[in-house]
TrEMBL record:
Protein name: Putative 3-oxoacyl-[acyl-carrier-protein] reductase
UniProt record similarity statement: Belongs to the short-chain dehydrogenases/reductases (SDR) family.
PROSITE patterns given in the database record: ADH_SHORT
Record's keyword terms, sorted: Oxidoreductase
Length: 251
């Protein structure tokens, strides 16, 4: 393990699998203590156990981003372990939210996506700020999506939720800067993980053929951006959006 994040304590939501699991693994390898969070309790605890076997310092807490009480209880438990140096807001509802046009979307699905992806990110950040404010140069990294930059069709609720994450990042950066907290966002492209297995082959091809760096995107292509934004290298970077998509979209 290298020491880029040595001595730091960082929360990662949506950490049971996919990008979130990769973020947690990379953060642990960089020397930090990781608090892995997800609603998928069995996968979460299995992933945490694997990292502990590799020598990482890992906590695992299952909670529901759609449930304010669940978030509050989780952060009460996190607070018992002390202050935080970072938060990665990766948790989101992505599977099963695409395929319908804006005319076909139903209100319940729209509200569910907003409840988890937007309100959940806000509530987790709100709960984390008192712990982040105790540490110098604390960081929040919000995970948006490049779908919000190019307007992916038949995915409107998800696209809208990730566009909200971009805007929230800028507002949070203005408000939390006086506490010394940096807030930034990344916008990954379509990544080959469990949550994108349902994505039609033609959408994968669109990305893989349309990138300035052609080919598939994998979790390891994204983790470096998160490590950078959590690290002392980014102590004077805030309110920014970093697309990480091989040049499918430029910002």
């Amino acid at each position: 393990m290298n020491g880029l994040l040595s001595g730091k304590r960082i929360v990662v939501t949506g950490a049971a699998r996919g990008l979130g699991r990769s973020f947690a693994e990379a953060i642990a390898r960089a020397g930090a203590s990781v608090v892995m969070c997800d609603i998928l309790a069995d996968e979460l605890h299995a992933g945490a156990a694997t990292l502990r076997e590799q020598g990482a310092q890992v906590e695992a807490l299952a909670f529901d981003l759609a449930d304010p009480a669940s978030i509050g209880n989780a952060f009460d438990a996190i607070a018992k372990g002390g202050a935080l140096d970072g938060l990665v807001n990766n948790g989101a509802l992505a599977t099963g939210v695409g395929g319908k046009t804006m005319m076909e979307y139903d209100i319940d699905l729209w509200d569910r996506v907003m409840q988890v992806n937007v309100r959940g990110t806000w509530l987790v950040s709100q709960a984390a700020v008192p712990l982040l404010a105790q540490r110098p140069h604390a960081k929040i990294v919000n995970v948006a999506s490049d779908t919000a930059l190019w307007g992916a069709p038949r995915l409107m609720a998800y696209v809208a939720s990730k566009g909200a994450i971009v805007s929230m990042t800028r507002s949070m950066a203005r408000e939390l800067g006086e506490l010394g907290i940096c807030v930034n966002a990344i916008a990954p492209g379509l990544t080959r993980v469990e949550a994108t297995e349902y994505v039609p082959a033609e959408r994968h091809q669109l990305y893989e053929q349309g990138r300035a760096l052609p080919g598939a995107q994998h979790p390891d292509d994204v983790t470096g951006s998160v490590l950078y934004l959590l690290s002392p290298l980014a102590n004077f970077v805030t309110g920014q959006l970093l697309p990480v998509n091989g040049g499918f979209v430029f910002n």
